């Protein structure tokens, strides 16, 4: 009985003591420990992220506009070079056209359409320039290489000679410094038409079908550059020559004619054609305007290449004979101008006669009428068309 009581009493105290202990200490369950660990890890990660962000902010320096422009220019140059290389690697017989100065928009077109380059073939410089050979720097060297390597390809392509003075010339796309360093030794050979001023001219048919005679269509005016001939320009601007006709020498000569024979035949032929072109204005009338009629001739080399067409043209020379003088306006306009001047003179003459008929009945001369005739307003400006400078 006592034992039981003691046991009960002891349990009571034990339970009471346990209740006191639980009220003094928090509950340390496994879930609380894991939460604390996650919080500590999250704080450490956030701190590292903040530190990295601050480090990037303080270490980053924005590019200057000059560096940005330079980088963009380099990227564009690489894109252009790649596009050009792909286009010029087109198979022989492909025709290429572009509209931008750097040929960044180069693309293939039909050779019956407007184009600037016709692909002939690929030449390899490796036999002459090994892997360690430096890039040639002189343009003369490149011209010699073009003639040596591309020349035979062009003649095979045309199935005949290339006129050295003709319309077509050899064009080439050569490796740049980076491509050369990477081992590229290829010359992309082709045919193109380069004007006297250096500008590329538009072709509209395959090279094999083109007459190589270096002639221009009648009505074309060629620029004046350093007292010499340049590329086509508007006839309203200053120019060196105006093309008035195209003549076929083979209509008169079965075999090559000497330059004297060409001159003897072309002089009257061009004189007749210029009258047709101007509507009746002859050589003497041109000379009154300070203009001269001239023509091209063909060399034996050109004749052998099939070039037998020549141009008749009108221009002017400087007084000291040091070169060509500037001409502005078409010779066609100068004829219209002369016709209008003649019509004006006729009108003035008719008006004067009518004034004479209106003199006094006694037949005496009307002084006022004479003054009116002599005082015609000849200093009045002509019509806009009359103000153009003929020739």
TrEMBL record:
It comes from the Bacteria. It comes from Saccharomonospora glauca K62. The chain crosses the membrane at residues 39-61. This is Septum formation-related domain-containing protein. Residues 358-376 have a biased composition (Acidic residues). Residues 321-391 are annotated as: Disordered. Pfam families: Septum_form (PF13845). The keyword Membrane applies. Residues 93-312 form the Septum formation-related domain. Keywords: Membrane, Transmembrane, Transmembrane helix. Residues 332-357 have a biased composition (Basic and acidic residues). The keyword Isomerase does not apply.
């Amino acid at each position: 009985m006592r034992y039981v009581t003691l046991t009960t009493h002891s349990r009571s105290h034990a339970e009471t003591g346990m209740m006191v202990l639980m009220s003094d200490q928090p509950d340390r369950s496994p879930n609380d420990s894991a939460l604390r660990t996650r919080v500590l890890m999250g704080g450490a990660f956030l701190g590292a992220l903040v530190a990295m962000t601050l480090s990037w902010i303080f270490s980053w320096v924005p590019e200057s506009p000059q560096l940005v422009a330079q980088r963009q220019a380099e990227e564009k140059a690489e894109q252009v070079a790649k596009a050009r290389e792909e286009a010029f690697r087109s198979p022989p017989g492909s025709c290429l056209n572009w509209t931008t100065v750097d040929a960044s928009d180069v693309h293939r077109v039909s050779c019956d359409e407007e184009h600037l380059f016709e692909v002939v073939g690929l030449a390899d410089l490796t036999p002459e320039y090994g892997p360690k050979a430096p890039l040639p720097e002189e343009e003369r060297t490149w011209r010699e290489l073009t003639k040596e390597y591309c020349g035979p390809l062009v003649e095979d392509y045309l199935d005949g000679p290339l006129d050295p003075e003709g319309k077509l010339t050899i064009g080439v796309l050569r490796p740049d410094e980076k491509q050369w360093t990477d081992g590229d030794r290829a010359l992309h050979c082709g045919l193109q038409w380069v004007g006297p001023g250096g500008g590329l001219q538009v072709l509209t048919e395959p090279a094999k079908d083109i007459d190589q005679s270096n002639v221009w269509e009648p009505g074309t005016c060629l620029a004046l550059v350093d007292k010499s001939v340049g590329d086509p320009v508007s006839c309203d601007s200053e120019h060196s020559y105006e093309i008035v006709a195209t003549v076929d020498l083979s209509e008169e000569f079965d075999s090559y004619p000497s330059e004297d024979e060409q001159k003897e035949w072309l002089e009257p032929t061009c004189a007749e054609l210029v009258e047709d072109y101007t509507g009746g204005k002859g050589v003497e009338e041109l000379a009154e305007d300070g203009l001269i009629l001239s023509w091209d001739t063909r060399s034996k080399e050109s004749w052998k290449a099939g070039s037998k067409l020549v141009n008749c043209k009108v221009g002017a020379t400087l007084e000291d004979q040091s070169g060509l003088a500037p001409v502005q306006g078409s010779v066609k306009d100068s004829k219209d101008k002369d016709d209008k001047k003649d019509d004006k003179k006729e009108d003035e003459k008719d008006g004067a006669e009518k004034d004479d008929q209106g003199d006094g009945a006694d037949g005496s001369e009307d002084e006022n009428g004479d003054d009116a005739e002599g005082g015609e307003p000849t200093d009045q400006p002509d019509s806009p068309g009359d103000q153009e400078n003929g020739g």
